Every structure is written in C-alpha cells, then in structure tokens.
Amino acid sequence: MATKLFYEKGYHSTTLREIAAGVNIKAGSVYNHFSSKQELLMHIVWTTTKDMLDGAVERLEGVEGSEERLRVFLTWHVEFHASRRLAAQVADVQLNALEKENLAKVLVLRDEHQAIMRELIDAGQKELNWSVEDPAVLTIAILTMCTQVDTWYRENGRLTPSQIGEILVNFTLNSLQADAS
Amino acid sequence: MATKLFYEKGYHSTTLREIAAGVNIKAGSVYNHFSSKQELLMHIVWTTTKDMLDGAVERLEGVEGSEERLRVFLTWHVEFHASRRLAAQVADVQLNALEKENLAKVLVLRDEHQAIMRELIDAGQKELNWSVEDPAVLTIAILTMCTQVDTWYRENGRLTPSQIGEILVNFTLNSLQADAS
Amino acid sequence: MATKLFYEKGYHSTTLREIAAGVNIKAGSVYNHFSSKQELLMHIVWTTTKDMLDGAVERLEGVEGSEERLRVFLTWHVEFHASRRLAAQVADVQLNALEKENLAKVLVLRDEHQAIMRELIDAGQKELNWSVEDPAVLTIAILTMCTQVDTWYRENGRLTPSQIGEILVNFTLNSLQADAS
Amino acid sequence: MATKLFYEKGYHSTTLREIAAGVNIKAGSVYNHFSSKQELLMHIVWTTTKDMLDGAVERLEGVEGSEERLRVFLTWHVEFHASRRLAAQVADVQLNALEKENLAKVLVLRDEHQAIMRELIDAGQKELNWSVEDPAVLTIAILTMCTQVDTWYRENGRLTPSQIGEILVNFTLNSLQADAS
DNA sequence: GATGAATGAGGTTTCATTCAT
DNA sequence: TATGAATGAAACCTCATTCAT
C-alpha cells in the first residue's frame, strides 16, 4: 500500500494518514510497525533492490556461455521490473528521498548489480568478440533501457513481461553480435 | 537555480525560501516573477520539453534517408539530455509533481516526440528492412535508453555528450541493421 | 525508577515507556500498578513530603529547649534532603506538574511543616531573645537554604549529610544568637 | 509572555500556541522571531542569567571592604530575584529543559557568578576573621537562600525587594561576624 | 500480570502564499 | 521590485491510555 502510494504520488507527497488509511488504521498506529516514514521507504527500496540483485545472482548460477548468461540476466531484469513495476520504480525514482546513510547502503547493492552486468559484457567481448564500442556506456545504457520497462509496462497491455524481455534481449544481442567488419 | 534545486531535492522538498535564497531575494519576492511554485515548475518542464521537441524537429528538416534521420534524431536526443541533464531530469522525474492540467499539456509534447521516433522506426523497417521485432516496444526502449543519459552523464566525465551520442546510435543501428536471416 | 527519571528529565519529559523500560516491563503493564502517570507522580510527591513532615515531628518529640529543638528540626531537614535528594527534588520541583487537587493536598503538608519551623523561630525569639529581624522571612529563608541541599549534594562528595547539616545549623544559630546590642 | 507561561506551567507544558496567543499571533508566526521553542527558552535563560551576573559585577566595581562588598553583592542578588522573579525562576528551574549545549553555556555564567561569591567569603574570612565553618558549603547555601526569594516573593506583599534584601544580608552577616570564641 | 497494537489528542514545525509598507 | 511578518493548513511524530489476548 505504501508502495502504491509512493509510486503514485512520490514519497514527499504521500502522507502517513494516507498510508494508514490504506490499511485501515490511524496515522499514529503506523509507528507500531515502522519507526518513521523514512524507514518505511527504506524497507521498500531495500527489499526491492535486494530481490532484484539476489534474483539475478540466483538465475546466473550454473549458466554457461556469455550469450546465455546475458540472456538470463537481462530477461530476469526485465521481468522483474515489469512484474513488480510499482516497487521497482519506487526503488528507482525515490532514491533521492532516502537519507544519506540509507542511500549509501542501497547504492552498494546497485553497484554490485551493475558490476555483474559489466562482467557479462566484458566476458562476451572477450569470448565471442562482441561488438562493444564502449563497455562502460553500454553497460549502463542497456541496463537502464531494461529498467525503464517499469515506467511503461502495463498489466493489461498487449505483451507479457516475458515477451517484452525477449524482445529487449534480442535487440541487445543483435547489436552485440553484429559483424564489426 | 530552481532547476538545480528541483533536480537535487525534488519539487516537494524544495522550498520557495531556498529558491529565493539562490537568487538572493526573499521568498515573498519570488511572486513578483512567478505566480506560484507550480508555475515555476511548469515553466521549467515546459520549456525543456519544448526545446527537446523543437530541436528534434529542426534537426530533421531536410534530412533524407532512414538511417541518417534516425541518427540525427537520436544524436540530438542524447546530446540534449547530457548537456542539459539537470533540466532534462526535472522534466522527466518531476512530471508527477505537475498538476493535472499542466501534466496533460506536457504529455502532448512528449507524445508528439515519441510519435516521431515511432515514424522513424517504421520508415526504416519499411525502407531498409530493419530488424524490428516489435516497433512499439523498441520505440520506447531506445528512447528511454537515450533519455536516461541525463541520469548518469557527468560534465567532467570521460566522454563528451557527442561521443556518448555516437556510441548509443551505433549500438542501436547495429541491432536494427542486423541480418535477420 | 520513576523517581530517578522524573528527577532527571522532569515529569512531562518522562514517558511511560521509559518508566516501564526501567523496570523491564512494557508501557501498558504499568497500569496494572498505577492507574495513571499522574498518580505515580502524586505517590512519589506525597510519600516524600509526608516522610519529611513525619520525620520532623517524630524527631521533635520530647525534645526541650528552643535551640535544641531548632537544631534537631533543621538537622533532620538537611539530612533528609541530602540522603533522599532525588525524591526530595521531585517533590519540590515537580509540584507544578501536579493536578490542582493533588497539589492542594500536598500543600497542606508543606504548610504544616513550615508552620512548625515558624513556631520554632517564634519560640526562640521569645524564650532566648534570638535576633530575628523578620520571623516570616527568616522562616522561609532558612528552610529553603536547607531544602536546596538536595540541589547540590552529591553522594560521593566531600561531606556527609550529617556534616552538612551541622554546618548549616551552626550558621543559622550563629546568626540567631548574635548579640543584637 | 513566554516567560510568564514557562514560569507558570514549565517549558514542556507550555505550547507554542499558548505563547503565540499571548501576543496575539498564531503559532506558526512565532517562527518569524525565534527559530524554535528551545531557542526562545535559551533566550530567556541566557539574558536573565547574564543580567544577574553583569549586575553583580557592575555593583561591585569600586566598592571596598569585605563587609560592604558582600552586602552590595547579596543585596543585588535578592533584589534581582525578587523584582524579576518570573524570569529568574525560569532561568533556575527550567535549566533542565535546555539542550546540552545551551545548558553548558549557561552553566559557565553561573559558575562565574558563584566564584565571585566564593571570593567574597574567602576575603572576609581572611580580612575580618569571619566565622566560616566551611566556605564551599556556605557559599552555595547563602546564595541559594537568596536565590529562592524568587520562589516566595510576591509583588503586592508586605515587604519590598530591598527590605527583604536587607533582612537576608543582616541575617548572613550576623552569622559571619559572630564571635567564634 | 504482561503485552502488542490501536487510538485520539495534541505538539512542534514547515511552508506556500498574502499583503502592507 | 523587495521585504518581513502573518497565516492556515497540514505534516510527522509522540504519548498516555485502552483492551483483547
């Protein structure tokens, strides 16, 4: 509920009263469960980011081959951001509403995640001679492209998360595997 | 100044006193220039979005050939979001702080802009047999990838806006021109 | 525990949760022992004030002679405020946190106590020709001087309560017995 | 007005709304003049304590002779606490409502003041052979006796501040000058 | 006797906005 | 144009108290 409200109105525009009303209690009662509005946000951002990271790591386990590994990684990324788009977007956009210390903790997770993507790119370049003009830029570009799915995906839309994932992965691999000759 | 503050802290967390202090006047005096904080935001979002759209249209004028047209369009898009990243990000992220009517007006511009991108994709597919698995998805995916540059570009970074533009355009065209056989 | 907290932070700044935590229960459980925070304060103030008064009366029983009676009375007063300084100060300073009716009850005790002191002064003046410029003023002045010991006495200080008592009693009697000629 | 309320109800029981109502403005408007309730308290405590100290120093200037110097010092002390009893009591009793840093600053002034009193006692003992059983104890005892006048003095009472001052000074000197033989 | 969760009242503070000067 | 003071609405949060378990 807080997730939905933070998504719809942003952290600062969402009031404790609204959050409380959403679960049929009064504002003060929220404090029996969370010690502050900030902690509530942190809880959402943290668990979401952690799930995203853990899910990626888990899915990569035992997978061999640069192409398959990137495919698995990005597919998960897209599906995650589509199927949990509310929380995912909160974890993305409301980052700047986190207090400094909380932000720092979350950024550690995000850096870790991005590092994995970078390794996948580097590995493909080395192993399969992928066409990678600038690994740093492409790492973040591809990642944000997939992340942004949480921005425009709609539950009752034409495509499923998994279909969207496939489209984006194919688009990406098409480019990476392009003949650089 | 307001742009910088909205970028750093978000609309709702930025106070008129801060904005005023940034230009060495007092809060009340802001009202000699803008009739409300909301109007200030709208001014930023509107002019930024309009510049982005107008710039794209202008640069496409007289340009022929699907590849070159897409190249021109995306290059502008990236360069714009890099070199004006503060305003661009405000125009993007603070959209949800706009009041309904203001939001509607801005969305018209954004839709118009996105429609151009869609036409470029469709044209290339028809004219050059681009590999476009799903034009709707790729339209928005490529666009957001380029837009998100305003998220990670840094003025004193390794690459110039124009270099980044080239990398992303090449990445995109590599994929679109991939042999679908 | 409540006494210590009221002493350290004052009645209004002490929360029931803190009081409860001090005796390893939760806030709600306090109500199994006291019916309200106010009653808790009243209990402390009342018993402390009563002990002070009763102690004085008790020690005066059977004592003869104005000088000895004043000596006994003040000695007790100082020792009481030194050795029970926390409670004594709460009973003094937190008076204004008592609800009207409770306050009234306590003031009865305090008036009674002060009346005894006044009688001792008057008796000495009549009997021993003490130098008493203004009995009302000296009554309260001497009393507050001794009461304030609860303000600065420290358990591990240089002097014992009884030593301090003697110093103050001597100081007082020195003045009262001064030659007024 | 704040002084009166802090005096009557204590810092924590006085609300901003009450303070504001006392000067016919709304609660929020108070913040145009003070940045917090705490600052308001600090202002009162600080200026009051400073006035007390400065007044003492000023009145001692050029005065010769231990007896006269003590007389001048204590007279000022009593008159100050009688005539400004509200503020004086706030500066005394509400000390524990000050935040740590503010408290520390005020204690510096108070220590300075007490040091002067101590010097006066020591000087009289040395110069005039005053009967001082324990200078440390008597310093604080006499001082608190005079300070506590702010507790019981009433504007429309029987005696003026100056009359009370004389009574207490005489009482004190009577004792100090008592024949120790 | 103890507890966790709920509540309602209220507190301090923030802030966009107004307006007389 | 600029300002300082005022305001009203609302925000987050605290807390004594209640009560079902």
Any overview of this molecule?
The structure is a homotetramer of 181-residue chains. Chain A contains nine helices and no strands. With 181 residues, chain A is mostly helical. Chain A has one domain: Tetracycline Repressor, domain 2. The longest helix of chain A has 29 residues, at 100-128. The model of chain A has no long low-confidence stretch (mean pLDDT 96). The A-B interface holds A 8-10, 12-13, 93, 96-97, 131, 133-134, 136-138, 140-142, 144-145, 148-149, 151-152, 158-159, 164, 167-168, 170-172, 174-179 and B 8-10, 12-13, 93, 96-97, 131, 133-134, 136-138, 140-142, 144-145, 148-149, 151-152, 158-159, 164, 167-168, 170-172, 174-179. Chain A binds a DNA duplex (21 and 21 nucleotides) through residues 15-17, 25-33, 36-37.
Looking at this protein, list some descriptive labels.
9 helices, Tetracycline Repressor, domain 2, 181 residues, elongated, homotetramer, DNA-binding, mainly alpha
